Amino acid sequence: MTKVGYLLPTREAIMAAQPATARLLHLAEQAERLGFDSVWVGDSLLARTRHEPLTLLAALAARTERVQLGTAVLLAGLRNPVVLAQIVATVDRLAEGRLILGVGVAADTPAVRAEFAAAGVAFEQRVGRLVHGLRLCRELWSGESVEWDGPYWTLSGQSLQPTPHRPGGPPIWVGGSAAAALARAGRRYDGWFPVGGEVAGFKSGMQTVRQAAADAGRDAAAITGAAYITVAIHDRPEEAEAMVERYLAGYYAPAPAAVMRKLQNCYAGPIEGAAEYLTGFVEAGAQHLCLRFCGDHDENLERFAAIAAQLD
To answer: Which of 221, 164, 153, 159 is nearest to 191 (CA)?
Structure first.
């Protein structure tokens, strides 16, 4: 069964100078009421300012009962893994096992480099810190005594409590479409969660991820394929395309919208074509879709709740 999720507009709220969270909490509750399977929150400290994702997910855990809650995606390399492990464990306890940890290494842009520098983290270490940090999180989530003498952190027989609701911690889905990212997803993690590549790229990438899992002696079929998709709905295709252009220009400024459009999975057009577009990803191996809306969120939640039922 294909699961369909919804990305909360935390970035958009800040861009509109409306940082109050009541609207975000309402949208999450509405998504659950309409039958969406998951609610997601993005991450950035300074490059694309927004609400801190795990804090917001803790609030959502208390306001929802059924939907899965996830980060799309968390820049785990910016966090100390001991602190991150404790926060994630607590959020997963609040959510009673509904948390999904989507993670990524961040794009190489001047704004992101400045963000890492401001956090005191060397940008060149972002991959190593993500891989080693998540491995340390998993060891701490066991609740057992941890001895760790790695390149970035040292522990001498300490243990963490509480552990997550689920033994071993929440599933970890990793983004990225480079060869190394695909290999990491297959060898180490529970899912692959790219933002671009469109259907052909997703299908090829999913095959590579599953092969990497099989080569590592893992159950390739157990790796979740998840796609992050931006949608803009309008009866006139040209206006839908203009909506996407305006959205990406504001969201990723100063990066050109045309450049970002090529890096994103985007549907722009009439609602009638959206189900066919999403079905393409399902047929390519996506088991979970995370939708980011351009335009009115209440209206789009209603629209895509109906479409989600067609994907099963």
So the answer is: 221
